Amino acid sequence: MTKILMTSVRADEERAIQAFAQTHDLDITLSREPLHPDNMTDFSAYDGLIVQQTAKIGGDLPFYQHLAQQGLKQITTRTAGYDMIEVALAQAAGLKVTNVPAYSPRSVAEMALMQIFRLLRRTWAFDHRVAENDFRWAGLQAREIHTVTVGIIGAGRIGGTLAQLLHALGARVLAYDTQPQDEHRAYLTYVDKATVLSESDVISLHVDLNPSSVGLLRAADFKQMQSHAGLVNASRGQVIDTTDLITALQTGEIESAALDTVVGESAVFNQDLRTQGVADTQIQTLLDLPNVILTPHVAFYTNLAIQNMVETALTDVLRIINDLPAENEI
Q1: Where are the beta strands (DSSP E) in 168-289?
Q2: pLDDT of the residue at 120
Q3: CA distances from 132 to 125, 126, 250, 281 (A)
Q4: N or C: at which end does the chain have fewer Cβ atoms within 10 angstroms?
Q5: Which of 13, 86, 253, 265 is catalytic?
Q6: Half-sphere exposure of 49 (CA within 13 A, CB side)
Q7: What's the confidence (pLDDT) of residue 216?
Q8: Active-site annotation holder among 78, 157, 206, 236
Q9: InterPro entries recorded for this chain (predicted)?
Q10: Contact, 321 vs 2, CB < 8 A?
Q11: How far apart are CA 124 and CA 229, in angstroms?
Q12: d(CA 306, CA 104)
C-alpha cells in the first residue's frame, strides 16, 4: 500500500484526507508538526511527502539528498506559495516539487472584497470607538463602492476573480501585472504601477512571493498613494516593507490597511497567545494601530478551498510516485 506523510495537518483537513485515502487505498500518516531537519529524519517508510507551512523548512542540499536517498521522489506543498521549500536544492537532489496554485481563487478574492468594503466603510474606526462607548459618526463618512477606484496589483487567478466581483459592483478597476491576461480586460484596465498607486482609493495585493515581489511596496510607493487610500494584503507579508507601512499609517500618508499576512507571522498566526502576548514588536505595533485590521492568514480558509488543497496535492503526489507527469510541478 502506498504510504504518504503529511505534515502540519489541522483537524479541519482530516475529513478530506481520509476520504481521499479511502478512495485511492492509501496509508496516510498525519503529523501536527511542520517539517524541519531537526524534527523529522526518517522518511524510509514513506512513498510521498506533503507539507504546509509558512516558515522555511531550513534544509540544506544534504537534507534534500537524504529525502531522495530514502526513496522519496517529490516534496509537495498543499498551498499556492512554495517559498517554504528550498526549491533549487530539492530539485538539485532529484526531487520534484509541486504546489496547489488554484485551490480556490474565489475564497481569497471574497476575503479581499470584504476587506475593501471594511476600509471604505471605515469599520476599523467604528470598532475602536464603540469599544470605548463612543457611538458618534463624526468624521467617518463612508464611500460607496461604485463611486471608487480599486487598484489590483497582481491580476492572476485571484486578482482576476476579484476584478470580476468589483466590476459587477460597479467599481472602476485598475490593475498592474507584469503579464497582462486578455481574459481579464472585460473587468479591469491594465495600467502601470504608478497609476495604480496614485489613482486608487483602495489597493489590493495578489502577487506571488518571489525575488521580484519582495518589498514591492516601500516608502516611495506609499507617498504616491492618496491620503485617504486603504491597502489590502492577502498575498504574502514580505511584499510590503513593514517598517515603511507602519510609518505611512502613523503619519497619515495612507488612511488604513487590512492585512491577512505579515512578516514574521509563522510565530504568531494560528497560535493562542492570550497568556504570553505577542513577542514580535512589528506585529504588536500593527495590532496597536487603530487604522489596521489584522487577520491571521485566513483568506484561503473555506470548506471548498481545504478540500481542493488536499485533493490536488495528493493527486500530484500519486502521479509522481507512479512516474506520471504532475500537473502542478514547479
Answers
A1: 172-176, 189-190, 202-205, 230-233, 256-259
A2: 98
A3: 11, 10, 21, 25
A4: N
A5: 265
A6: 25
A7: 97
A8: 236
A9: D-isomer_2_OHA_DH_cat_dom, D-isomer_DH_CS1, D-isomer_DH_NAD-bd, D-LDH-like, NAD(P)-bd_dom_sf
A10: yes
A11: 14
A12: 9
Query: The C-alpha cell of 68 is what?
Result: 531522495
Query: In this predicted model, what pLDDT tens digit does every residue of 62-92 receive, in sequence order?
Result: 999 999 999 999 999 999 889 999 999 999 9
Alpha-carbon span 160 to 176, nearest angstrom = 11
236 has catalytic annotation: yes
Distance of alpha carbon 237 from the chain centroid = 8
Spatial distance between the Cα atoms of 50 and 44, rounded to a whole number of angstroms: 15
CB 313 within 8 A of CB 98: yes
Q: How many CB atoms lie within 10 A of CB 276?
A: 8
The most distant pair of C-alpha atoms in the chain lies apart, rounded to whole Å, by: 67
Distance of CA 37 to the CA centre of its chain: 24
User: 235, 208 in Cβ contact below 8 A?
Assistant: yes
Which entry of 122, 184, 297, 319 is annotated as an active-site residue? 297
Q: Are 151 and 200 in contact (CB under 8 A)?
A: yes
Strands annotated E in the chain: 2-6, 26-30, 48-51, 74-77, 96-98, 149-153, 172-176, 189-190, 202-205, 230-233, 256-259, 292-294
What cell was used for 137? 459618526
Tell me: the pLDDT tens digits for 281-304? 999 999 999 999 999 999 999 989
Residue recorded with cell 507527469: 325
Give catalytic status of residue 265 as yes or no. Answer: yes
Q: Nine-digit cell at 259?
A: 492585512
From residue 268, alpha-carbon distances to 11, 36, 53, 169, 265 in Å are 19, 18, 13, 35, 5
Give the three-class secondary structure for 317: helix
Looking at residue 309, what is its pLDDT?
A: 94
- This prediction has a pTM of 0.85
- Rg over alpha carbons for the chain, rounded to the nearest Å, is 21
